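Q: C-alpha cells for this one, please.
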Amino acid sequence: MAEKKKIVVVGYGGMGGWHTRNLLESDVCELVGVCDIKEERKAKAIERGIKVYNSIDEVLADESVELVTLAVPNELHEPMAIAAMEAGKNVISEKPVTMSSESLQRMIDASERTGKLFTVHQNRRWDCDYLMMKDLYDSGDIGKVFCIESRYHGSRGIPGDWRTEKEHGGGMMLDWGVHLIDQILGIVKDRKLEKVYCRCDHLLNNEVDDGFKLDLYFEDQLTARVEVCTYNFIALPRFYMAGRGGTAIINDWKDDCHVISCDKWDEDNVTPVVTAAGLTRTMAPRDEKTTTESVIKRPESDVHDFYRNVCAAIDGKETQIVTHAQVMRVMKVMEAAFRSDELGAPVAIDDEIV
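A: Here is the predicted structure, written as C-alpha cells:
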C-alpha cells in the first residue's frame, strides 16, 4: 500500500472541520495539521491534539506537506492555491473554486505550469440522490429523457455570514448552484447545452441572490430545471425525471427513488376523471394494467473516495475525478446564469461536452 499523503487543511471553520474529521479517518492521507488565523479555532485544534500552523506561509514552508485543502473565504482561493502550487504543493479547493472563469483559468494555468495537481471538492457527486438519478438516466430504463428537475428548498434564509456578501462569493448560485449544476452536467453527458435562462431571487437580500430558478436547455429537447430557495416552508421534490417510457421521483435526499414505467401506451376504456367543473379523459391517471411501479434503493457511497482518487492521481495511477474542464464548464454556466438574470432573457452557451 502506498504511503499516506501528508496534508494540511487551511481554514478550520465549518467545512475545514468536516475535512479534518474525515482526514483523521482516511486510509490515504495523514493529517499533519490545520491552519487558521482565529485564536479560538486554533485553541480548539490544540485541544483536540491537532498541530496548528499560524499562517499559510508556515504551511508552504513545511517541506513534508504534499497536499493542501483550502477551506477559506472564496476570494482567497486563487492567491492561496497559486502560492501553494508554486511552493510544490498539490491543492484541493473548496467550492466555489473562485468567482470568475478568468480567475479559475489563472489557477489552472498555475497547475499546468508547476505540474501540481489542482482540483475542487465537488463532494455532492457522492450524494445518493444524484447517483440514483445518474444511473437511471444512463440505464435508459425510462426511455429518452426530456425533463429533469433538481431542487433544494430551505426555510431559514441565507445564513448570516459570508454567504450574504458579494465580495466573499455569497449567494445561493455560488453556494448551492455550483453543486446542482455540476450534478446535472454529470447526468447529461451525451447532449450539448445550448442556452440557459435564469431568474434570481432577492427576497431579503439585494446584494446577492437568496435563491434562483435556472433552466438549462440541451439539444434534442431536454430541459433541466435547477432551483434553490431559502424561504420555502413546504419543499418540492428533490429530484424529478421524466422520459418517454416512465417517470422517476426522489422526494427528499434521504429517500429511495420511485419509478413508474409505462408498459403499454394505449389504454382501453379510460374512465374520465370528474372534477367540480367538468370531466377529463386526458388527465385520467394510469392503472396497473399499463404501468409498473418499482423502487431504486439508495446505493452505497463513500466520500473518502474523493481523497482516494486525489492521492492516486498525484501518483499518476488515476485520472482526477473532478477535472479542470468540468470545473470551468460549471463556472461558465453560472456566469451565463447571472448574465441571463441581468438581461431578463435566455443566454446562448458555446458548450463543449466534457
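A few notes: The chain has a mean pLDDT of 95. Residues 5-121 form a domain with the Rossmann fold fold (CATH 3.40.50.720).
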